[in-house]
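can u do me a favor
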């Protein structure tokens, strides 16, 4: 991660809508943009392309 662990934690504490890929506040039940309930937590690890 980066130099500031508190900031890194705050950046990873978001929910991402699987339908429109909008970032939402932590713990929301539906998307702020499209209203979908199909949410996921942001990935904690970076994914590497092969």
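np, heres the sequence
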């Amino acid at each position: 991660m980066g130099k500031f662990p508190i900031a890194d934690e705050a950046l990873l504490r978001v929910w991402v809508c699987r339908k429109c890929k909008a970032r939402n506040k932590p713990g929301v039940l539906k998307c702020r943009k499209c209203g979908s309930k199909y949410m996921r937590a942001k990935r904690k690890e970076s994914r590497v392309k092969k």
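Residues 5-12 form the longest helix (8 residues). hope that helps!!
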